[in-house]
Amino acid sequence: MRHITCAALFLVATSTVCYGQTSTVEELKSLAKVMHLYGYVGAFLDGIAIVELNGKYGFIDKAGREIIPCQYYSIRSRGEGLIMVENTASHFGLIDKTGREVIPCKYYHRASSFSEGMAAVINASKNLNNYDKWGYIDKTGREVIPCKYEAAFPFSEGMAMVRLNDKWGFVDKTGREVVPCKYHRASSFSEGMAKVNKQDNNYKWGFIDKTGREVIPCKYETAGSFSEGMAVVEKRDNINVYIHGWGFVDKTGREVVPCKYETAGSFSEGMAAVRLNDKWGYIDKAGREVVPCKYETAGRFSEGMAAVRLNDKWGYIDKAGREVVPCKYETAGRFSEGMAAVRLNDKWGYIDKAGREVVPCKYEAAFPFSEGMGVVCLNDIDKAGKDDDGVLLSSVGGVTIELKGKKKWGFVDKEGHSTFDYQ
């Protein structure tokens, strides 16, 4: 069975997009004319969406025009106006949103997306001794940092995490090793801090700043990256290792929220999910329990709303803890552009923040809204029972669903109109 992941097909915009004057309905009508051609479609980002035809990938615009032909084996990533593509020889290159080849598909065997003007790559044109080594290129394809590392992560806040001799450190954009490769494990910089793990300190976690100074000592069992000025940490009792708890530290290392919870998530929109007595609730940055620990599961806040599970059903609360959308759904995703995908009776649809079911739960899958549209699919009854590879998609709400058999793909808008209405 051939599997295609959600990460490759459904790349969702995170930046603000200015829309033209064309109405969404007119765009849906145009898209409806070409939807039957494609085996899969992805979300719109910067006005274009991934499509698949006969096992090859390209892009269409909102008028349904195939602006980049379906000629690539895979679309690996998108970022900063460039698209990482793979040809049939398993080499990677870069194109822009018009399809112009910025870097030909003949140099790099593997590559990451561009971040802060740089992309991590393995240069396939090097000799065999250097074949599996990572370095960095700029947007012209110039190898700015030589391919000499065992692993390399995207740049974040001017620094990139790299591995050499099985140890992790950080380089800047000139390739200077600002933080020596000496850590057992590490994570990318977030809000000026990076979590690191030292082997010679019983594999405990702490935090360094961009000079490599260990601001918060490596004394925690587990640690999350900084988010909104706080990082979640886990601490164990030195005598009884079975006594442990989760809390939060600020950038000075002060434990703002005591390590008393069974587990906890990162802060989002001023709130963090915490678990106590096997139930979830939410705290604010002062450690005040704003939403009591009474839920079976709790998601991150997004657009002022968080998905919660009670009695094995999902709904949504606001920051005051008010249950705005009753817990009645089988699965619930995060809000994006004022809409959230939900599943009821094993079918997917969308609700708005008032809980109104704008798009009925009738689809086999539904994905987050991007640029005014959501991607959905239906079973293709006309082709049912015929041989098909199937596709594995990582869906919303933390649930992985496997879509088997032929599908009809389409788009819906925030008024409930869909491309299926015009076919």
Provide a brief overview of the structure.
The protein contains two helices and 40 strands. By secondary structure, it is mainly beta.
Summarize the topology.
Blueprint: H1 6-9, H2 24-32, E1 40-45, E2 48-53, E3 56-61, E4 66-72, E5 74-79, E6 82-86, E7 92-96, E8 101-111, E9 119-123, E10 134-137, E11 143-149, E12 151-152, E13 160-164, E14 167-171, E15 177-183, E16 185-186, E17 194-198, E18 204-208, E19 214-220, E20 222-223, E21 231-236, E22 244-249, E23 255-261, E24 263-264, E25 272-276, E26 279-283, E27 289-295, E28 297-298, E29 306-310, E30 313-317, E31 323-329, E32 331-332, E33 339-344, E34 347-352, E35 357-363, E36 365-366, E37 374-379, E38 391-394, E39 400-403, E40 407-412
Antiparallel strand pairs: 1-2, 2-3, 3-4, 5-6, 6-7, 7-8, 8-9, 9-10, 10-11, 12-13, 13-14, 14-15, 16-17, 17-18, 18-19, 20-21, 21-22, 22-23, 24-25, 25-26, 26-27, 28-29, 29-30, 30-31, 32-33, 33-34, 34-35, 36-37, 37-40, 38-39
Detailed description of the structure:
The protein has 423 residues and is mainly β. Helix content is 3%, strand content 49%. It has 2 helices and 40 strands. The strands form 10 sheets. Strands 5-6-7-8-9-10-11 form a 7-stranded antiparallel β-sheet. Strands 1-2-3-4 form a 4-stranded antiparallel β-sheet, with no helix packed on it. Strands 12-13-14-15 form a 4-stranded antiparallel β-sheet, with no helix packed on it. A hairpin with a 4-residue loop joins β3 (56-61) and β4. The longest helix is centred in the first third of the chain and has 9 residues, at 24-32. It is flat and about 65 Å long. The two termini are 30 Å apart.
